[in-house]
């Protein structure tokens, strides 16, 4: 029996559909269905209850799944044993990140990772969707909040500060605010996301965050587009340090009200590395975890 059949079984069970399993294995649903049927014939029992809306494991399928995971884990450990002896890291890792963080912080690291591990295949999935790591086959995810569901590990990489800024051209035309209260007289740019629009927060050491209202002249759902609008002089924006530090260093942006700690939302601002909790973490995943902790752990 081929291990690929067990891999399809696990993928279909985790994703809840043959179509999702097919996407993960870069094939078509009919092929997955035929392969699972072949596995059922080989084992002599039905593994899935199939209908047009849902795919669920039979009692036999659930028992087989436990053994399949164990076999695949042992095979992964065996491959790692050989790979470590040859000092090589092989295999594929699926890493998920938001579009802005992925483009600004992760993509610049890919060349270094490839040079260090040339036989490692990395799939970088850039999305704003909070994915279910197991059902969507994600090995690692970079998130901006520690609130995650399921059996996962969340490791804090670095804190994030938000910086109020504008372009030199905007400052030349309109001046700059001297206090938070002055913001009412300026065009502000805000995130067009739930809970991150008209209400910002002033943070204090050991004190509750104090909300204050702004009247956005423009709301944009993309952090990268919001940064671009700020660079082009459309208004004042509150942006993450990893988005604007380079622009400030190159005098493309001006940091405003530096003595005020601000945030567009309440809660801890940080980047987290999240991954499914497993009895055995494959070496291909471990090396990426270690690389990202080292490369991103010091912050922007």
From TrEMBL:
Domain HTH lysR-type, residue spans: 1-58
Q: Which GO terms describe its molecular function?
A: DNA binding; DNA-binding transcription factor activity
Q: Hey, which family's this protein in?
A: Belongs to the LysR transcriptional regulatory family.
Task: Spell out the InterPro entries in the cross-references.
Answer: LysR-type_TF_proteobact-type, LysR_HTH_N, LysR_subst-bd, WH-like_DNA-bd_sf, WH_DNA-bd_sf
Keyword flag Calcium: no
Stored SUPFAM superfamilies? Periplasmic binding protein-like II, Winged helix' DNA-binding domain
Protein's name according to its UniProt entry: DNA-binding transcriptional LysR family regulator
Q: Which organism is it from?
A: Devosia subaequoris
User: What keywords would UniProt list here?
Assistant: DNA-binding, Transcription, Transcription regulation
